[in-house]
Amino acid sequence: MTVVGAGGLLLIAFLVLGVTVADTTPTVDRIAAESLGGGWQHTAGDIAFVGSAVLGPVLPVLLGLGLLIGAWTRRHDARLRGLLLRAAVLLAVCRTVSLAKPLFERARPREYPDFSFPSGHVVSVASVAFTVVVLCAWLAVRRLRAVVWWSVAAVAAAALCRMVLDVHWLTDVLGATLGVVGLGLLTATGLGLLPVRSRSVGSRS
Where are the transmembrane segments (predicted)? Predict the structure, then answer.
């Protein structure tokens, strides 16, 4: 299967999942909510609140600024500057998955502002993770495996925090991940970031 095909399938899965859960709560969501969401007013909730503050919308803002500053400081290196600017566009496009919430209008597990599907916090972390993995593949391929594992762990931690706080269903965080990876694959391909050609920007890996 091609990268574009995989991206398209994941994006379709995101949309289908969103439509499916918009007006119903699957059993898997109820089980997860009963297992994780009951302690949001206690210590587990305090920890999850801190985790959500760190693993949330602030991350893409910081990475986006970092990419733009990096592109400016390396403006005399056309290839690296172009890579960083394309990565900034990739990050921004992935982050737009959160804008799909009004399409589904899904209610939260408990009373809380805004719609539920997909999780904006998980979209934020997954967008950063996807962009960092792509950049790592270009610039530091030897560290790619470790970066992938850390990225997966960060997305999982963000998802867990949102479910412990009882502000998202399991399918909300799953949908966020599907949407970001699907849109990310399509966008990265369109921007020429996939397939990776790491040696073109001076990688020694």
Answer: 46-71, 83-100, 120-140, 147-165, 177-196
